[in-house]
Amino acid sequence: MVSSDILLMEEAAMAAGRVILSYYREGQQVSNAADVRHKGANNPLTKADLEADRLLRTTLLAARPDYGWLSEETVDSIDRLDKKRVWVVDPIDGTKEFIVGLPQFAVSIGLVEAGQTLAACVHNPATNETFLAQRGRGATLNHQPIHTSSRTQLIGSSCLASRSETKRGDWDPFKQELDLTIMGSIAYKLSLVAAGQYDMTFTLTPKNEWDFCAGALLVTEAGGRVTHKGGEPCRFNNKDPRVRSLLASNGHLHSALLARLKGIPYGPDRHGPTCTAQPITSTGKRAES
To answer: Which domains can be identified in the chain, with CATH numbers?
Structure first.
């Protein structure tokens, strides 16, 4: 069944990508038709996000009506906690880059069972890259096998850094140690680490499950390792989908990276509970903003 899920995910992601590209203008700000608005501070939303989310939800749940649903652009429901399998979706990871015409955004779809990602699809429609993974069966880019890099020395490693975090100065302590490249979309960053194009990426700023559910499986299936700052493994379909940190590496560098970040404080939660899919309470209601 997971193999057929992979095909479904890829088809849905590519269809969503076509919707997104109808609004995208490379190197330019999106047009007024994209209807840019804001869910909260530094947290934009566009018509493309909503249309892609609607297409993905309709397509994936129509084909798998017994699966649960967790998406950035859909109000959360406690029902997903009782489902055997759950779709974890970000219709556009990297909305800020999409808005300004940077090809650093992606459709991200993960399929979760018992806290683990079974299958993953990350599709960047602007670059025509589709990353797929199935637990225990490896990862691919445009259907060709991919593997993480072989670097073993932390100093000088190539590392993808968040655009917004770099602007805030969060990456200043690492500029002399790592070969930093600024990149939008955590899902896309994880995909590029999986493909061996970069050695690592990390963030100590809070993220949500939909940001990295698919990308984390890509990295691990390509031979890398993904944890939180304390070394804890990632688990998904939690009642509260928000996490405080995420580290992804080629695997060889992970122990050294964990040691390097041990004394570095977590970044501030600048979005707070303002995301569309807000955490659910024990009563099944959305948490109050």
So the answer is: 2-143 (3.30.540.10), 158-273 (3.40.190.80)
